[in-house]
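User: Fold this one for me? It's G-protein coupled receptors family 1 profile domain-containing protein.
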Amino acid sequence: SQMESSPGLDVPYFLTETITAVLSVAGNLFICTVILRDRKLRAVVTNHFLVSLAVADVLVGTVAIPCAQMADAGLPRGQPTLCLLMLCTLLIFTQASIFGLLAIAVERYISILKPFQYPSLMSPQNSLLVILSSWVLATFIGLLPLMGWHKPFPSDGQCTFNAFIEDTYEVYFNFVACMLVPLAAMLVLYSRIFLEAKRQIRKVAEREVDVSRHARRRRILHKELRLATSLFIILFCFALCWLPLHVINTVQLVCPSCPVPSPLMLATIVLSHANSAINPVVYVFRMRSFRQAFTAAFSCAWHPLPASTLGKFCTSGLTLSNQLELASRNSPLPGK
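Assistant: Here's what I get for G-protein coupled receptors family 1 profile domain-containing protein.
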């Protein structure tokens, strides 16, 4: 994200960013806890990528937002290398989120369009390798300014994004190559996913002979489509939160004399960081496993001595039916 050129502590901005950081950390730690504490959820490959995305969002709340707040105040002064490293953390976590979203889109594409190849292509080992590779690549891309792709260090020694990060890196490389191209690829993948899922559902409906087998297949397809829709909403929210800031950066590169009000710039920065707090909300409202875990967490909080049924639910975090549902998500579809 980009910092205003004349630093100084903006109290409303500081408070809003602090609230965003707290919500991001709390919400995404909840998502990680729900997945990691349950064996059935850990077995779902999609959730491996969701944990990686949640970790990036936790780091936004614990590292990136405090760094942005410091840069808003022009800190640290007179330490250009430390300043560059601090600003690069913003770029690393953003890029890790983009690669995480792209990996999720590819995983969903394989699940629906190549269900019989899914177990071999998207094994847990392969998913972890993809996650590790995406983080290494995101780190390399984010650290490029520290490696030399930056402006000459300002004479006043103040740490601001505009003063250090090259506009060409921010717009042509970080925005166009590393954000717009992956976003375009994800839109193509999700378009193919929705078209294929609807085609298969219609095909099953037209050829129902063995009702029980086809009914099960249709239920699986509906679950796959619902999951893909939820993940597409996450992608849409990411684009909605980050594009305004990058559009302003592009306008400033093309038209350096065009004024950009400081409140507008700070608002787009807050919006970009707020994306890290939005994802857990989407998970809870759109995905049954997280919604049930969220309900269970509050039930346990309000019932210190729960009944046996509630106690079991609080311990496992999932109902048996939900566990069976999750187990079926990675199962290949029945024969065509």
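One thing worth pointing out: Residues 41 and 47 are 7 Å apart (CA to CA).
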